[in-house]
Amino acid sequence: MYTPPAFRTDDLPTLHAMMRAARLATLITATAEGPLVTLLPLLLAEDEGEYGVLYGHVARANAQWSTPATGPAVALFMGPDAYVSPGWYAGKHEHGKVVPTWNYTAVQAAGPAEFFDDADRLRDIVTRLTDRHEAGRPAPWAVSDAPDAFIAAQLRGIVGLRLPIARLEGKRKLSQNRTAEDRTRVADALAAGPDPADQALAALIPR
Fold first, then answer.
1. Which of 9, 63, 116, 121 suits 88 as a labelling partner, its CA being 20 to 30 A distant?
2. Model pTM?
């Protein structure tokens, strides 16, 4: 991931928090047949390995798990993003030498993808993922709410993923290369807009 020094994030707790906040990840594997890509929720086990381990599952019909990879897999976690108008910069009114850009946050985790179909491990991952996303609901649904035979049949349709993270890169492009005045202008403009994603990004911009 191309990351100029001003936008680089190396703090491990911050990177883990960014990954947890991203509800959907993009899994990418390079193969002799070309890149394969799947969008899927991933569970981060922070206490495993140096950088953590990712767990998830893909459909058994998805060729990504059965196609040999030619290198490490990459899991991309995207945070809030927003278009930044040059009209928000002070320079727009002073000299006009400004252009649009895009602000965003992202984490890229790379490592060897391990796929498995052990039923007990699959049930554990599905349960942990479900519990995470059902947490806080008035009446959270649990895997145990469904008949065992039904769940067993569903598990036969998926393949588990374990991805021990060997390399972790973070990027927070939040107008750090602009003046404090410009950062404030950008944050205020995004916060005042109607888009919740813009508002979420505005809260991250350093002033």
1. 9
2. 0.92
